[in-house]
Structures are given as C-alpha cells and as structure tokens.
Amino acid sequence: MPEPKYVAIANKYAADIRKGAIPPNVWLPSHAEIAREHGVSEIVARQAIGQLRRKGLVTTVERRGTLVLAQRDDTRLSPERQTESPETTYKTEATADVEVVVDRTVTEVSASEALADEFGLDVGAPLVHELVRASEDGRPISISDTYHLPNQSPPEADILEEELSERVPPDGHAEWLGIPVGEPLMMVKQRFLTSADRLLMTSDVSYIPGRYRTFSFRMVLPRE
Known about the structure:
By secondary structure, this protein is of the alpha+beta class. It has 6 helices and 9 strands; from the N terminus they run H-H-H-E-E-H-E-H-E-E-E-H-E-E-E. It has helices at residues 5-18, 31-38, 42-54, 86-93, 113-119, 171-177; strands at 58-61, 65-68, 100-110, 126-136, 139-148, 159-167, 185-193, 199-207, 215-220. It has a 7-stranded antiparallel beta sheet with strand order 3-4-5-8-7-6-9. The protein has a two-stranded antiparallel ribbon with strand order 1-2. The relative contact order is 0.13.
C-alpha cells in the first residue's frame, strides 16, 4: 500500500527536525509553500503539519505559522524496565504525581497461520492473548497485544529482542490512542526467547506520539 503523501511530507520534516537540520524555534514554510514545493494541495500540507504537531515536533501559532519545538530527552530509562509492570514503569517516568490505570484482558486463542509460523507451532495450537491498555490521569498512553505460550507469563526467557520504530498500528490501537486510522506512530516489537532462540512471548506495543525515540536492542535477561 503506497505511503500517503501527507505522511511522506511529515516524515521528511520529522527526520530533519530530529537530526537538527531544522533547529528549534524555526518557522516552517506556510501551508501554501509546502503545497507548492511538494506538488500537493494545501489540505495535504495541513494534514502533514497536523501529524508533526501530534508527534510533539511543532506547534501552530495563530496568524503566525508553525514553529519547531525543542525536543525532549525522552529516550527510555533502561532496558531493564521491561521486567517491570506497566504501572511501575509509567509511575517512574512521570514528572508529576499521576494516576496510572492499566486494564488487562486475557483470553485463550488458537494460533493463526502467522502466529503458528512465528512460534514454530501447528496451526490451531493453544496460545494466550493479553490485551493491555494503559492511561495516565484518564489519557490513553499505550496499548499492547501480547501472545505467549501457556504458562509463560512472565516468560522464562533468556533473551529479549526489542525494536522501537514508526509504523502503522492496528486499527484498535489507533482508536484507543485517539489517532487517525492508518497514521504511523511509535510502536515496539518485543520477542522473548530462550537461549536456543525458542520464542516464548511476542508483543506489539503502541505509544502516544512523542513518547519515545527510535532505537533497538537485544539483551540477556537477568535470572533470580
């Protein structure tokens, strides 16, 4: 599926802002100028700026235009945070006293063809699905879909692989976080494995725009 024009325009500006090619406190071109430069309508230009605003990269000042914001140092505290509960993690990261609410739904499911291939199972084999929605003071901040082998929560894993990248989330994730369906945002792909690379658990986690920066790592999990 081709990338929407407004997404491509927003991603170009976002990359320039994050690497410092466009510094803070600089005014971006007007909607009309962006439209002319990229050969699109002003509606598409407005959509691109709206996406940058939702990512926390810019702000719109009435009758003046779009101003680039200084970027927060909001990289994650440490990989070890993945051994914590969401309640503990979000409380640790908060800059003020906030109410963290985590809602979990756990169901038994049969492995689809894609999940069976990922886990190395037969199609229809039993798996557990956990849907976790987190909010701070009533504001949704993350949602995750986790699949794991029965009796593997928490997983008896030796290795955690994690990749944090910008991609289009499932429709249910977009709805919970209050973003337009089909719009990319920051997502985490986690894989918990044994030392023999047997997959025990996999998670797809979506965060509100601007929550974290992009990076990936692989770590050996501590054992008690």
